[in-house]
Design goal:
About 40% of the residues lie in helices and about 20% in strands. The strands form five sheets. The protein has a seven-stranded mixed sheet with strand order 12-13-14-11-10-16-17, sandwiched between helices. A six-stranded mixed sheet has the order 7-6-5-8-9-19, with helices on both faces. A three-stranded mixed sheet has the order 1-3-2, with helices on one face. α8 links the parallel β8 and β9.
């Protein structure tokens, strides 16, 4: 048996000592993939001190041309290791290889977007000379890095989420300390190593896995942190935000219970592939996964039967197989939770059309529920599993009201062949983005991506994150030579 790989902490000038190690296991077969050193309080302080000293001396800052060269070289290295990185991500996270390859392509595209945005990273001057007070003056506006970025990431997209948090920090010139998810840290460490090989000094991008939540909280809430980027559960995100040091800015990306409105004139042949993909992609472990589908009663049963047939035809199993479409849940505890939520819905009167059972290797059968009660968990909370609910409606406004009834709000969608209906629903859905004739999980990496209400704070997407990680410094020049 091959010995599990060892991943040390990525902290500059770190003291050598015996550290507690975390075993990283494959969710599908529980194989030990690697052992990762964990950071104690001294290690965290070392990382923060290194980043703080680096940023405090402007002579240390990397110029824009230097950053562009590093990012472009990193893209080349990622392309060289494309299959290896995609395979590693599928192995540790359980996302099927076919989708992990897509994620790897997006990861590269995200870094390319960082370079593209650096080439147009400008701001507009403040007008002067328009009254007596502002006479003989003009302004220069410069963008500068905000300071130390601490990024806490989630397990479900271990390549592209890191690209979205670390890429903009490197691009804007911020020292970044990243804490990957405990379930999927290996992809993060591999990407950070690529940045280092591309010429980024270790001090500018450090990676740690704190040995417990208390130490992780110390990292996030340290007064030296200028910007906190969080992707994960709402409970943890809002808690950490409440503990931030004064002056620390943040962006939070949580989950939702994404709604879809399917009007009576919708083309079901157009809707079905997207709804199938949006419902069961990565076993539903996506923050904007399709979960609630409100369908006009005249076609609700037809759509339910078609979606059930599509769900039954999906290949469930080993994420490393090129034929697998739905892989395992990230851990057995999640499998148990999803099973209990579905059973609760059935006990409360939902019709189970397919699925509803745990399979081997932490997999769960793709599940379609018809008309569950609005008060059960599958209707009111993010299930983060391969489960979708269908609710027939007779009144469009009532369907919109039901879609808007929760304390979460992220992306939504509407299927219809009528432009007036599309605009009517889009304007009334409580969402940061509404897709027309497309599923709720659609995303490209340069578009805004924002959770509203309990679903998050701030706006993600490469250009928007880069904006968050910079400040605009105004210089006002006074001279009698200025008219």
């Amino acid at each position: 048996m091959t010995a599990a790989q060892h991943f040390p902490l990525m902290v500059a000038d770190l003291e050598k000592k015996n550290r507690t190690q975390l075993e990283v296991k494959a969710p599908y077969d529980d194989a030990i993939l690697a052992r990762v050193d964990t950071a104690d309080a001294d290690d965290i302080n070392q990382a923060l001190t290194t980043a703080s000293q680096l940023f405090s001396d402007k002579n240390n800052w990397l110029s824009v041309p230097q950053r562009i060269v590093i990012l472009e070289r990193a893209i080349e290295l990622m392309q060289d290791q494309f299959e290896e990185l995609a395979m590693g991500s599928a192995h540790e996270g359980g996302k099927p290889l076919i989708d992990s390859r897509v994620e790897m392509a997006r990861c590269i595209d995200s870094i390319r977007a960082c370079v593209d945005n650096l080439r147009d990273n400008t701001c507009h001057p403040v007008p002067m000379g328009i009254n007596a007070t502002s006479q003989h003056r003009f302004t220069i506006m410069n963008k500068e890095p905000i300071g130390i970025v601490v990024a806490v990431s989630a397990f479900n997209h271990p390549l592209n989420l890191i690209a979205h948090q670390v890429g903009p920090a490197i691009a804007t010139g911020c020292p970044v300390i990243v804490k990957p998810a405990e379930d999927t840290p290996l992809s993060c460490f591999r990407l950070i190593e690529i940045f280092h090989r591309a010429g980024l000094p270790v001090e500018w991008c450090q990676a740690v896995l704190p040995e417990n939540h208390h130490i992780a909280e110390k990292l996030v809430t340290d007064a030296r942190v200028a910007f906190f980027s969080f992707i994960g559960s709402a409970k943890v995100g809002w808690y950490l935000r409440s503990k931030l040091a004064p002056g620390t800015r943040c962006a939070l990306e949580h989950g939702g219970v994404a709604p879809v409105i399917v009007n009576k004139d919708a083309d079901l042949d157009i809707a079905l592939p997207g709804l199938t993909k949006g419902s069961f992609y990565h076993a539903g472990q996506v923050c904007v996964s399709v979960q609630r589908i409100y369908v006009h009663e005249s076609i609700a049963r037809e759509l339910a039967e078609k979606l059930t047939s599509a769900a039954k035809s999906l290949n469930v199993g080993d994420p490393l197989s090129g034929n697998t479409e739905v892989g395992p849940l990230i851990r057995n505890g999640e499998l148990i939770r999803v099973t209990s939520w579905v059973q609760e819905a059935v006990d409360m009167g939902a019709e189970l059309l397919c699925g509803g059972q745990a399979l081997l290797n932490n997999c769960y059968a793709p599940t379609v529920l018809f008309n569950p009660q609005s008060t059960c968990k599958v209707s009111s909370s993010e299930i983060f599993g391969p489960v979708v609910c269908i609710y027939p409606f007779s009144d469009l406004d009532q369907a919109i009201s039901s879609a808007n009834s929760l304390d979460v709000s992220f992306q939504a969608s509407v299927y219809t062949q009528d432009i007036d209906t599309a605009m009517y629903v889009s304007n009334r859905l409580a969402a940061s983005a509404v897709m027309v004739n497309e599923h709720t999980a659609f995303r490209v990496d340069w578009m805004p991506f924002a959770g509203l209400k309990h679903s998050g704070l701030g706006t993600g997407g490469i250009p928007h994150t880069m904006e968050d990680m910079q400040i605009e410094k105004m210089i006002v020049i006074t001279s009698k030579g200025i008219n």
